[in-house]
Design a protein that fits this description.
single chain, 245 residues, alpha+beta, 4 strands, 10% strand, disordered C terminus
Length: 245
Amino acid sequence: MKKLLFLFLLIPAIAAAKAPDEDLILDRTMDSESPYYYPALLMRYNSGDTTLTDEDYYYLYYGYAYRDEYKPLATNPDLDKMLMVLGGLDPENPNVESLEAIVSFGLEALKRDPFSPNILNTLSYAYGALGDPVREKAYAAHMNGIIRTILASGDGFTQKTPRHVLMFSHALDVLAAEGLAYGKASIVSRNVEFVPLAVPYVVEGKKRKGFYFDFSRVYWNKPEGYTYKRDRTWQFNNLKPRTYK
């Protein structure tokens, strides 16, 4: 059986941030003649297509904000069930029943949050431990593609250059993928939150104390009077993203 401890994701260097162009995303994902027509892209994604490009992931991820299925403030009970089973898993000797339960709950949870790095990573692990390398690599490829998309949306160092996410939990998943421990996030504007790092690190001679994330899409269709409750995130059993070369 495979151990639960994954290798860290290799984060590619980003030449220039690509903040989402909402008009272009809406136009291309709604155009049935476009290579980024959303139903076609989503079909490829759901089938486990590993040939999706970074451009495909860009339109998949940010195009989802315009879909009726996008309900970022809804609860995800199957995610809680998946995390509960995962939390009781013996990483040295995971049993088949638990792994199969993780897959079952994870697939249902993915219906509510199809681009969750946490869920994708967990499914990749479970399929690998069950001896299914095809699905293992497919879910890992999806996870890496989503993380690259978020990282490419901004450097996150200032309020004007935030990383753009569809869910609050995605921001924390990205930091976990980078191997960064973080503290409690705080809202700094109507569209941006700041996630402080537990241990600041130096980039290009500057000390970085945390990252800014644009969460505005979460509240585009916010029900009146709704109070958001943050989901639990990627902080258990040393589960880290796998790297495939």
